[in-house]
Specification:
Layout (H helix, E strand, L loop, with lengths): L2 H9 L6 H12 L5 H14 L3 H12 L15 E5 L7 H11 L4 E5 L9 H5 L11 H11 L1 E5 L6 H11 L7 H15 L3 E8 L8 H17 L3 E8 L7 E3 H12 L5 H18 L5 H13 L2 H12 L4 H5 L9 E6 L4 E6 L1 H13 L13 E4 L6 E2 L4 E7 L5 H11 E4 L9 E5 L1
Parallel strand pairs: 1-4, 2-3, 4-5
Antiparallel strand pairs: 5-13, 6-9, 7-11, 8-10, 8-12, 9-11
Length: about 425
């Protein structure tokens, strides 16, 4: 068997066998297949897709490409969540301690920035001292001790996904349904959770921009995940404009802290509560969504989730003084304002353009392995539906060390559309797939 044969086979739209897929993943992880050949295969998949049988085999091969996290020795129900990626999506940093406060075990394996979207690991590591490179044994021990973990999916756990994740980011193959399915589910299968809720983003800032595409991805994820022996549910959520008002690593940590302290942007809080309630319903603990949400709201408002977050940060070496006083988190060397060219109402705010701009300011990556600047990003002072005066500040650009401010400023200015008539923002939760 040769890699070039599999590339040609996929290029011509022919389904690969389970044996061929396993051979390819094993050889790639072993370093016997070079990046340029795997890049060609990824592009062939982007254009030709995969059958559901291929997706099951592809996901299983990636999940089994290294160690798995066996949580059976950890008491309690193990839950997890995953987002397909958005702008300002810092839900994980809120939901993990929230579910821990509710009495569940969450051993979350997360990734870094991908394309125009942020990464949970980059965000969490913007807290000074936090380390996420935990071994499976360390993940299990911490889960037993405090019930919550946020760890990078290292080369020991689902190593094929880590390698492909970085390669997709720089080869234009991120928005491919089969590759997203394999990436999302391989980490979830390897992560050892019993119940998993998926947040499938839909809109301008998502990899799936139309509702039919996003719902199709949610259905594929749930079907393939259940085929592999786990219990999955998915919500399709809106990503036409950024979630919350921050796009950038330390900026989003500040916003997560606001929500954990009982405040924060209403849209970020709403999506977090919806996903948490879905997990409670999957677990069978609560009979209806209203009761489930009420329980989670109490844990936020009474500070129980906040205390669990402090415990999580401390357990992974973080400086808790920096989260108790967010002014001590990394700050940009310079802040540039973007102002409204006219008075009116914000009728559109492109999440994608804001996400790309945050990357140009230093919050994302342009090449594989590049470091991000924890202080860089975009702060939004106006969102869809807000009234603005001529010259009002629409956004602040927090410049990192390698920032390209003029390009970022043009993108953010162009992300806003201001009209004469007010516009009510659309729904946040678009569909549920079980």
């Amino acid at each position: 068997m040769r890699m070039v044969d599999l590339i040609e086979k996929k290029r011509d739209g022919i389904a690969l066998t389970e044996g061929e897929i396993r051979w390819m993943i094993e050889r790639y992880v072993a370093g016997e297949i070079p990046d340029y050949q795997m890049s060609a295969f990824l592009m062939a998949v982007y254009f030709r897709g995969m059958t559901e049988e291929e997706m099951v085999a592809f996901t299983a091969a990636m999940a089994e490409s290294g160690e798995t996290v066996d949580l059976t020795e950890v008491p309690g129900v193990k839950v997890d969540k995953h987002s397909t990626g958005g702008v300002g999506d810092t839900v994980t940093l809120i939901l993990v301690p929230l579910m821990g406060a509710a009495g569940y075990v969450v051993a979350k394996l997360s990734g870094r920035a991908l394309g125009h979207t942020g990464g949970t690991i980059d965000k969490f590591e913007s807290i000074p001292g936090v380390h996420t490179d935990l071994s499976p044994r360390e993940i299990i021990d911490q889960a037993k001790r405090i019930g919550v973990v946020i760890a990078e999916h290292t080369q020991d756990v689902a190593p094929a996904d880590k390698l492909l994740y970085e390669l997709r980011d720089v080869t234009g193959t991120v928005p491919s349904l089969p590759l997203i399915v394999g990436s999302v589910l391989s980490k979830k299968i390897a992560g050892g959770a019993d119940l998993i809720v998926l947040d499938v983003k839909c809109g301008d800032g998502a990899f799936m921009q139309s509702f039919p595409e996003a719902k199709g991805l949610a259905e594929s994820l749930v079907r393939v995940g259940n085929e592999l022996g786990k219990r999955f549910s998915a919500l399709v959520t809106a990503m036409d404009q950024p979630l919350g008002r921050m796009a950038g690593n330390a900026l989003e940590v500040r916003q997560a802290i606001e929500v954990l302290r009982g405040g924060g942007p209403e849209d970020l809080r709403e999506v977090t509560l919806a996903l948490g309630a879905e997990l409670l319903l999957l677990a069978g603990e609560e009979g209806d969504e209203v009761t489930a949400r009420r329980k989670l709201v109490r844990l936020l408002d009474e500070g129980v989730a906040w205390e669990k977050f402090l415990e999580l940060v401390a357990a992974q070496g973080g400086d808790t003084q920096c989260v108790e006083d967010p002014a001590r988190l990394p700050r940009a060397r310079e802040v540039v304002e973007v102002r409204a060219p006219r008075a009116g109402y914000v009728r559109r705010l492109s999440a994608r353009q804001v996400g790309v701009a945050a990357g140009l300011l230093g919050a994302g990556r342009e090449v594989k392995g590049q470091e991000v600047d924890p202080a860089a990003g975009v702060e939004l002072l106006a969102k869809v539906g807000d009234a603005v005066d001529e010259g009002a500040v629409l956004a602040r650009l927090h410049l990192g060390e390698r920032a390209r401010p003029e390009e970022a400023r043009r993108l953010v200015a162009g992300a806003f559309e201001i009209g004469d008539e007010p516009l009510t923002p659309g729904k946040l939760i678009l569909a549920r797939v079980r």
